[in-house]
Amino acid sequence: MRADAARNVELVLTTGARMLAQDPAASIAAIAAEAGVDRRTVYRRFASRDELLAAVYQARLDAIEAAIEAARLREAPAPVALHRYVEGIIEVNRTWPVELTRMRAEPAIRERRQRAIVEVDAFLRRATDEGLMRPGMPDGWAGVVLGNLLHLAAQEMSELTAAQAADVLVTTFLDGFGAR
């Protein structure tokens, strides 16, 4: 794919993610207009609105997986990995604000999402084992709370950089789950 075509696809996907998060019924024509491309350009790449939506979800999952990998959840010191993960996911949530709820019925999406959840839950168990977080919380609860805090941070702390929002979120999270 040519560089300009790749940029157009990326622009259509990020614009589509933003618009679909605001209005799940947004049309391809509206997304194309907002992205500054002709709707025929969009239809050449995506045969239908559902195909565009699937590509947005795939791009969001790609970004989540990249953030998990960059955080080095298995090997970096737990406090460092937690901050890297939070900062990366805040950026993902800002770039790809569309929620995966509608695509959870699709097995490939559900499996990729579940792998990410398993990876984060394993990290949170490691953080607990290493003394960063307090033991005794219900299994999986820290991950659920962290996920919800990540969504809130992306939406409610838009005036902060992802790194600044991560500082606030990690402090909030560890105040609730941290070792005392």
Short description:
With 180 residues, the chain is mostly helical. Helices cover 73% and strands 0% of the residues. It has helices at 3-22, 28-35, 39-45, 49-71, 78-95, 107-129, 141-156, 162-177.
Say what the CATH topology of the largest domain is.
Tetracycline Repressor, domain 2
Count of folded domains: 2
Q: SSE order, as H and E? A: HHHHHHHH
What is the tally of helical segments? 8
Outline = elongated
CATH class label of the largest domain: Mainly Alpha
> Total strand count, please?
0
CATH architecture of the largest domain: Orthogonal Bundle
Content-based structural category: mainly alpha
The CATH homologous superfamily of the largest domain is named Tetracycline Repressor, domain 2
Task: Profile the largest sheet.
Answer: none
Q: How helix-rich are the residues, as a percent range?
A: over 70%
Q: How confident is the prediction overall: mean pLDDT? A: 90
Describe the structure.
The chain is an all-alpha fold. The chain has two domains: 1-47, Orthogonal Bundle (Arc Repressor Mutant, subunit A); 57-177, Tetracycline Repressor, domain 2 (Orthogonal Bundle). The protein is 73% helix and 0% strand. It contains eight helices and no strands. The N and C termini lie far apart (53 Å). The mean pLDDT is 90.
Present the secondary structure layout.
Elements: H1 3-22, H2 28-35, H3 39-45, H4 49-71, H5 78-95, H6 107-129, H7 141-156, H8 162-177
Helix pairs in contact: 1-2, 1-4, 2-3, 4-5, 4-6, 5-7, 5-8, 7-8
